[in-house]
Design a protein that fits this description.
The protein is of the alpha/beta class and about 350 residues long. The chain has 13 helices and 14 strands. It has helices at about 20-25, 35-50, 65-75, 90-100, 120-125, 150, 175, 205, 220-225, 245-260, 260-280, 310-320, 345-360, and strands at about 5-10, 55-60, 80-85, 105-110, 130-135, 135-140, 145, 160, 180-185, 195-200, 295-300, 320, 325, 335-340. The strands form four sheets. It has a seven-stranded mixed sheet, with helices on both faces. Strand 6 (about 135-140) and strand 7 (about 145) form a beta hairpin. The chain is globular. It starts with 6 loop residues before the first strand and ends with a helix.
Length: about 350
Amino acid sequence: MPLRARTLLGPGPSNPYPEAQVALAQPLLGHLDPVFLGVLDETSERLRQVFGTANRRTLPLSATGSAGMEAAFVNTVGPGDVVVVAVNGLFGQRMVEVASRCGAEVVAVEHEWGQPVDAERVLAAHHAPKLIAAVHAETSTGVRSDLEPLAAGKGDALLLADCVTSLGGIPVRLDDWGVDLAYSGSQKCLGVAPGLAPFTIGDRAWERRIEKPQSWYLDLGLLGGYAGEAAGSGRTYHHTAPTGMVVSLHAGLGRILDEGLDAVHARHEEAGRLLHAGLQELGLELFAAEGHRLPELTTVKVPDGVDSAAVRKELLERYDLEIGGGVGAYAATVWRIGLMGSNATPDKVTLVLGALAEVLDR
């Protein structure tokens, strides 16, 4: 059955950049082909630029962003280690779950959903954790949290950042901020299909890693022999990398860097500003705290008496336009609208505002 083209304005995936889409049609290369390994090394270097880091162990993991989260924890946290997690949405909750499965003593610092992380409360939650974890851009609530205050007060702890929805959409400067390790996903602001988890780990975290983590597949010590730190040297076979996806990510990152990171961030900021203003002009109320709203992922309250799922269904069937519902307690009371990657443009704002207004009028 032929697939219909959709405008993907939900929380992800987003429509890919044309360059990333075209790259998927390139001839397939083997995962140890010298030409492919050159593309892999260039992809890792491009990831360093968008992450704002010089970490030599920066690479695209062969899995989605959730595996990036798991890789971060299984490689740094073991039984009895204290982990403080800032929880202000679904993905903070997932961090708690993953750290717990590693046997960690988890201190969850709960926040009201829709609010940013309170660095003072997080830093005061335990006097000597091994690791502090926070979500930079919480996809479930549309909230941006500042990482710099956490880094400034982390002391001897490692700082882990979830950058799944922030990377490629808003500034990420891990080295300047003092973040020790971070992960992302290919399918959001990077404008590539789902399937890869950009990942980076600094020397400080590497020196404290679990030598033999519970996951063989996500063992960064083994992966480092194939990608990242292996650049320019002999490669150790680990797994069959999704070479077509890496080539696509290489192209998507190239598109971003050709436009310029500052310009890409400004484009997302402008699109988000227009959407926020337009939604409020329709009489709708934004969910995330003012001053901490993401431009690339907007949360808006469903009006009283409106069937959230029915509106989303009509947008999809009538306009081939996807927006997302909320999650958890807000599943039926919040919509999530993404303007990520190639969709961070004024014409997509006009499209979603016009379609939403028509459906609500009916």
